[in-house]
Automatic annotation (TrEMBL):
Pfam families: Snapin_Pallidin (PF14712). It is found in: Cytoplasm. GO terms for cellular component: BLOC-1 complex; transport vesicle. This is Biogenesis of lysosome-related organelles complex 1 subunit 6. Residues 1-38, 143-172 are annotated as: Disordered.
Length: 172
């Protein structure tokens, strides 16, 4: 039984003969400072590599898949948050637009009131000018009447003076 387990795990030492499925790692220099001896070739069984790979994957793959799912969920949540944030920004812009509209309406109301006041003033000034024109016309007519009366009075005075002047009698 031990022999089978050893075969499944691959050769444990270099004394065993390599199979056709074994790999040979290239020689590397030793990282030790004083030693210039090359590292011995290591033979690895393909089954052992497959099992080690399988074991490594079975150990780390679930965590990696969970991390991948968590990252996908986070990405999805970020997209939802970005959409929500974009909607909120749009709402704020609309609110600012409404505030701008409100200020424009307020300003329009102020200018409308100014126009109404100007119109009232113009109507009042028109009425005053009309009254002044009527008064000026009456005064002009009165002056003309007075001047006419004065002229008539003067003519009467002249006529009276003519009549008072002695006239030579006619010789017959």
């Amino acid at each position: 039984m031990e022999v089978e387990e050893m075969e499944d795990e691959g050769p444990s030492s270099q004394s065993e003969l390599p199979h056709s499925e074994e790999f040979q790692l290239p020689q590397q220099e030793s990282p030790h400072l004083g030693s210039s001896d090359p590292v011995e070739n290591v033979l690895v069984d393909k089954k052992a590599v497959d099992k080690l790979t399988e074991g490594l994957l079975s150990h780390y793959l679930p965590d990696l898949q969970n991390s991948k799912r968590a990252l996908q969920e986070l990405t999805q949540n970020q997209l939802v948050l970005l959409d929500t944030l974009d909607q909120e920004v749009t709402k704020f812009r609309e609110c600012n637009t409404l505030l701008d509209l409100n200020s424009l309406f307020t300003e329009a109301k102020v200018y409308h009131n100014k126009l109404v006041n100007i119109r009232k003033e113009m109507i009042m000034l028109h009425e005053k000018t009309t009254k002044l024109k009527k008064r000026a016309l009456k005064l002009q007519q009165q002056k003309q009447k007075e001047a006419l009366e004065k002229e008539q009075k003067r003519e009467k005075e002249l006529e009276r003076e003519r009549q008072l002047i002695a006239k030579p009698a006619k010789r017959t």
